[in-house]
Amino acid sequence: MLTEKIKDIGENMTIDIKMIEQTAENALGASIDNIRQIENVTNNTVYAFEAADRRYIIKLYRSRDWPENGKIPFVYHTLSQNSIPHAELIAFSRENKNIPNGYLIEGAVRGVAADKIHFDRQQECKLYIKLAEQVSRIHVIPIRNFGDIGDGEADYDSILSFFEEEFDERTSDLLEMKLFSESELMNMKAVFLDVLDQFNDLPPVLCHGDLSKKNIMVQESGDITLIDWDDAMSYNWMADVSRLTFWMKMNYSKEEYELFRNIFLEHYQTDKRKAEYSTFEKAFHLYIALDSLVYFLSIGDKIMGRNIRNYLDSLSGQK
Predict the structure, then answer these.
(1) DSSP state for residue 153 in the 8-state scheme
(2) How far apart are CA 234 and CA 240, in angstroms?
(3) Whole-angstrom Cα distance, residue 27 to residue 17?
(4) Which residues contact 164 (CB under 8 A, 6 or more apart)?
(5) What angle do CA 310, 313, 316 make, to 5 degrees?
(6) Which strands, in side-by-side order, build the sheet including 103-107?
(7) pLDDT of residue 279
(8) DSSP assignment of 172-192, as one string?
(9) Whose CA, among 61, 74, 261, 277, lies 20 to 30 Å from 269?
(10) Which helix (H) or strand (E) holds 47?
């Protein structure tokens, strides 16, 4: 049974559950039933509910600045234009004074999240083949410039110029926590940017930004739909795929990682320097590891935090 108040949505906020129900009913023009919180969602607060014999979710954002205004409607419209399966967007708003960080309402995608399914090896290979085919289609969608998408146009004329600033912002907490020295981070930044410069000719495309099994819904037919586009960005294709393969590396054995990574790459379609992908991937894995380390430590996931730190140490030859 739900409590009457939902606490800690964002910073020191309390939202009445009745206000959430009313917001959903106003958006759908129908009364809602069976509202319940979805557990183990760390970034935002998400509730599932039913209305007029359909299932929906409402997501309450913890940040007023992320996802940036305009992005979610733009991304969903763009996916529709390109016949990419996605959830039905009902509402995205930051105009409700009672939910000031904003909310999203969308139709629930049928199926089960891939990270909740016990696959045998052949089934998991098929999953990554389907994912490669779908992501290949997404990565031909051009976006103007690099970085945050907003309502359809990013701000940086190259991926290098974007990450020159983004690297420092993302790693500043590591300095404060004394996990790395300034010289260590500057050396890693130099290595990272040098590789990005080698691939500065790759064009900006729509990227999901968080490709992983938790964001793949699998239907009974075996078809898949990507969910949770909050982290969508305008990067080159290699950056998006590198995030997927990083989480493979963190969650699979070495043998499984190599199998599923290679299956995905074999079926991923692009004419943009695919044979050179491994060079970019190694450098981008370094960035993702640094970016993720603070997050996992901040939520108290010491196991993943330790695994990522061990990975970073292995890159620098430390034990």
Answers:
(1) B
(2) 9
(3) 16
(4) 193
(5) 155
(6) 33-37, 45-51, 54-60, 103-107, 89-93
(7) 98
(8) HHHHHTTSS-HHHHHHHHHHH
(9) 74
(10) strand 45-51
Tell me phi and psi for residue 83, to 5 degrees. 55, 40
- What is the distance between the alpha carbons of residues 128 and 212, in angstroms, rounded to a whole number? 10
Confidence at 6, pLDDT banded by 50, 70, 90: very low
pLDDT in tens, 84-117: 999 999 999 999 999 999 999 999 999 999 999 9
Residue 299 pLDDT more than 90?
A: no
Q: DSSP secondary-structure letter at 6?
A: E
319 falls in which pLDDT band (50, 70, 90)?
Answer: very low
pLDDT at site 317: 60
The pLDDT assigned to 73 comes to 97
Give residue 17's domain range.
5-107
Q: What is the CATH number of the domain that holds 93?
A: 3.30.200.20
CA 42 from centre of chain: 13
Q: Using CB atoms within 10 Å of the CB of residue 266, give its burial: 0 to 12 exposed, 13 to 18 middle, 19+ buried.
A: exposed
Q: Domain check: are 116 and 219 in the same one? A: yes
Q: What is the DSSP string of 223-277?
A: -EEE---TT-EEE-HHHHHHHHHHHHHHHS-HHHHHHHHHHHHHH---SSSGGGH
Domain limit, last residue, from 49, 78, 107: 107
Instruction: Tell me the C-alpha distance between 239 and 121, whole Å.
Output: 26
- The burial class, CB within 10 Å (0-12 / 13-18 / 19+), for 304 is middle
